[in-house]
Amino acid sequence: MSLPVRLASAAMVVVLLTSTDSALTVQPSSTPEHTFSISAKRYAFSPNRIEVIEGDLVRIDLRSEDIAHSLTIDGYRIAKRVESGQPVVLEFRAERAGTFPFYCNLQIDDGCRRMRGELVVKPRRVSTPASRD
Predict the structure, then answer these.
(1) Domain boundaries of the chain, sorted by first residue
(2) Of 23, 57, 95, 133, most Cβ neighbours within 10 A?
(3) pLDDT tens sequence across 39-98
(4) Architecture of the structural domain at 33-122
(5) Distance CA 106, CA 84 (A)
């Protein structure tokens, strides 16, 4: 392909991209996002239960107020360690409905094994059009 033809092709692409606003517009997601602040302290999570709807984007701001802990959700293959005074953020999409236990998987102290909670993902209801009988 000759240089003039390549330049003309590139110019056409630029014109197309700049002349169609809708092609470049990013539509906001209609999927709800939920942010939870969970603290780990004295061998407990607070809160120790979170509920979302299937398909929701989940954000967990995790902090420890004493020693290092972790938040592990086997059903979502999540394991995140948090140090005291150094919060961390976990984000994931709740793609499967069900009840998923979470726990601290560290062995620093016997109390860590008692740290339990649960993620409850409720099924998304699919609305069906009313019948016209």
Answers:
(1) 33-122
(2) 57
(3) 999 899 999 999 999 999 999 999 999 999 999 999 999 999 999 999 999 999 999 999
(4) Sandwich (2.60)
(5) 14
